[in-house]
Structure formats: structure tokens, C-alpha cells
């Protein structure tokens, strides 16, 4: 099946990763388990099973977890044994804006913390439908500026799925407002981000059968719950529609077997067009959230390695390069 437009298949900002035989077998086994429940996670009732899924992410070695409140938002610190001082990552968890918790995502964030060599904070931003847009974005901004008040002079933002949306939204906000403290931002990493809440990407159709998790009606209801009648093309709700000029350097990772594939492709394509240091890594045969299979998939291990290399390079720079 053709998964990428032919006109971008050789783009300099695109890196495609082939599927290993071992990962192919592992993905087939995973599909057999999850596809019977495709599209069934809905509403707040999905929070408990969703967190249970994320709790199965393998625990990284040498990470200490600590509950805290940053900017008035509760969450968890993931601290590697040799974390560099003055630097931090803020990881924003996924869950379609209505599911997920810092505790359930602590191991995933812990792996990112180890890869980057810095402490990582995962905020429990407010969830929809109890707290619709822009509550989550407000919490993320409060956390970011509070980290600066605590003395962190270099901060990277990472996020997966809906958290990728919020990570990019924060980068857009800082680039647009040039608020005091924006100079601390060194870059961002988005994993299968939701960038278009209008759900207009072609991959919602072309990858509908390949994606074992999500359906368009399911996503539409989750987005409706989050936006609460707010327009989906607001650039602070959907980063795809934002002015991306001046955005901090970003790296985006996505699998071919995702209905969200085009959310990543179009975002990076538009970012590069306005001069942003951006790159898209596309993982053949991978599904949404494949980083969570660290220790079980070669693609997950390689993805984590690339994330770490990018973050280490960004933290090493004395000034963020725009």
C-alpha cells in the first residue's frame, strides 16, 4: 500500500526506516491481540484501561521517580542517576486529551530522561471533558515557566499523540509571543502527534485498515469532547494551522500504519518550508505509540536512540538555534 506521497518520498527532511523480520513478527502478534478492540476506547470510562496499557511499558534502569507540583500542576519527576543540572525535559503524555496520567507514563518518560541524560517532568494536565480546550495548554505553559523559575536554563519539550499536539502548541506559543523565558527552549520531539483536529489528513482513509487502534468516528467524538465547540482550525488547538516560522528545532516520529500519518507529514513539510530545523522519521510497519514497546521492538530501541541523540545535541548548544 502506498503510504507516503511520491513527491515527498525523497525529501531531505524525511528519513524512512525499514521493518525488520523480527519486528514484523512481533507486530503481527500484537495486532492479533488489539484489533478486536479497535475504536472501542471512548469517554472517561477508557481512562483505567488506557493507563493499564501504559503501565506495561518496561521500567528503565537507574531512574528515581518523585511526585511534585510544578506551576501548580501535579506530576512526576523521572530522574536518571547522572542527570545534568540546570537542564530538563518536560514530557506531555498522550490519551486524546481525555485519558492518561503522569504516573502511567512515568516509565516511557523515564526512558526519554535516560536517553537525554536530564531529569524529566510529566505533568498531569487537566483532561477533557471536565476541562476542555484550552485548559491543558494553560497547564503546560504554567509548568514551562515554573521550570524556569526553578532555575532550569535549558528545557526541551517532548510529547506523544495528544501530548505531541500540546508540545507543538507550546513551541508555537513561545515562537509567536517571544515571552520572557522562551530563550530557554532548546527544541522539541513529537511522537505521532495529533496536529490537525479537523481530521482532514488523507491517512484517515488510506491507513484506516492498517491502523489497529483508532477509527475516525472514535477520534471525532474525542476531539469534540476536547474542543467543546471551539474551532478545530485554531492554530493553538491544531499546530498544523499555525504560523510555524521561528519554531524551535523539532524531530517528529510516526509509523506508516497510523491514521495519524499525515498529521506528521504535513506538519514537518510546512515547518521546513518556512525555515524550521525539522525532520520526520517514518517507521515502516509501526503503529501508534510504538516507542512504548522498548525492549520488544528494534524500531522502538532505535527511535529512543535518535530522540536521545537529538536532545543531547540540543542541550549541548549554548544558544538555541532558530
Structure in a nutshell:
With 322 residues, the chain is an alpha/beta fold.
> In total, how many domains does the architecture comprise?
1
Question: By helix and strand content, what is the structural category?
Answer: alpha/beta
> What would the average pLDDT be, to the nearest integer?
96
How many strands, which pairing sense, and closed or not: the largest β-sheet? Answer: 9 strands, mixed
C-alpha geometry: globular
CATH architecture: 3-Layer(aba) Sandwich
What's the total number of strands? 9
Rounded to an integer in angstroms, the radius of gyration calculated over CA atoms is 18 Å
Assembly classification: single chain
Helix content: 25-40%
CATH superfamily: Alpha/Beta hydrolase fold, catalytic domain
Count of DSSP H/I helices: 9
Note down, in words, how this protein is organized.
This protein has 322 residues and is α/β, with parallel strands linked by helices. The protein has one domain: Alpha/Beta hydrolase fold, catalytic domain (Rossmann fold, 3-Layer(aba) Sandwich). 35% of the residues lie in helices and 18% in strands. The protein has 9 helices and 9 strands. It has helices spanning 21-34, 47-54, 106-116, 135-149, 162-177, 203-206, 216-227, 261-273, 298-316, and strands spanning 14-17, 63-70, 73-80, 87-92, 119-123, 154-160, 185-191, 250-255, 278-283. It has a 9-stranded mixed β-sheet, sandwiched between helices. α8 links the parallel β8 and β9. α4 (135-149) packs across α5 (162-177). The longest helix has 19 residues, at 298-316. It starts with 13 loop residues before the first strand and ends in a 6-residue tail after the last helix. The mean pLDDT is 96.
Amino acid at each position: 500500500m502506498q503510504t507516503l506521497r511520491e513527491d515527498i518520498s525523497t525529501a531531505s527532511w524525511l528519513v524512512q526506516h525499514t521493518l525488520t523480520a523480527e519486528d514484523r513478527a512481533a507486530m503481527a502478534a500484537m495486532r492479533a491481540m488489539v484489533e478486536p478492540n479497535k475504536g472501542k476506547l471512548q469517554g472517561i470510562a477508557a481512562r483505567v484501561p488506557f493507563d493499564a496499557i501504559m503501565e506495561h511499558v518496561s521500567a528503565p534502569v537507574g531512574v528515581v521517580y518523585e511526585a511534585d507540583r510544578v506551576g501548580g500542576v501535579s506530576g512526576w519527576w523521572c530522574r536518571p542517576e547522572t542527570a545534568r543540572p540546570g537542564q530538563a525535559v518536560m514530557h506531555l503524555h498522550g490519551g486524546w486529551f481525555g485519558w492518561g496520567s503522569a504516573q502511567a507514563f512515568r516509565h516511557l518518560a523515564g526512558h526519554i530522561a535516560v536517553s537525554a541524560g536530564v531529569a524529566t517532568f510529566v505533568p498531569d494536565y487537566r483532561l477533557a471533558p471536565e476541562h476542555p480546550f484550552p485548559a491543558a495548554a494553560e497547564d503546560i505553559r504554567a509548568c514551562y515557566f515554573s521550570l524556569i523559575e526553578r532555575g532550569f536554563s535549558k528545557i526541551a519539550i517532548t510529547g506523544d499523540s495528544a501530548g505531541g499536539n500540546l508540545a507543538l502548541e507550546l513551541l508555537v506559543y513561545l515562537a509567536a509571543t517571544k515571552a520572557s523565558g522562551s530563550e530557554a527552549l532548546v527544541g522539541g520531539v513529537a511522537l505521532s502527534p495529533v496536529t490537525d483536529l479537523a481530521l482532514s489528513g488523507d491517512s484517515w482513509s488510506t491507513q484506516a485498515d492498517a491502523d489497529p487502534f483508532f477509527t475516525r468516528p472514535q477520534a471525532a467524538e474525542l476531539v469534540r469532547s476536547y474542543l467543546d465547540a471551539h474551532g478545530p482550525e485554531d492554530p493553538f488547538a491544531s499546530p498544523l494551522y499555525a504560523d510555524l516560522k521561528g519554531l524551535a528545532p523539532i524531530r517528529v516520529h510516526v509509523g506508516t500504519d497510523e491514521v495519524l500519518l499525515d498529521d506528521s507529514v504535513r506538519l514537518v513539510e510546512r515547518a521546513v518550508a518556512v525555515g524550521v530545523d525539522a525532520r520526520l522519521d517514518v517507521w515502516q510497519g509501526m503503529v501508534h505509540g510504538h516507542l512504548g514497546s522498548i525492549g520488544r521492538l528494534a524500531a522502538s530501541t532505535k527511535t529512543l536512540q535518535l530522540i536521545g541523540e537529538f536532545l543531547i545535541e540540543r542541550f549541548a548548544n549554548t544558544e538555541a538555534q532558530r
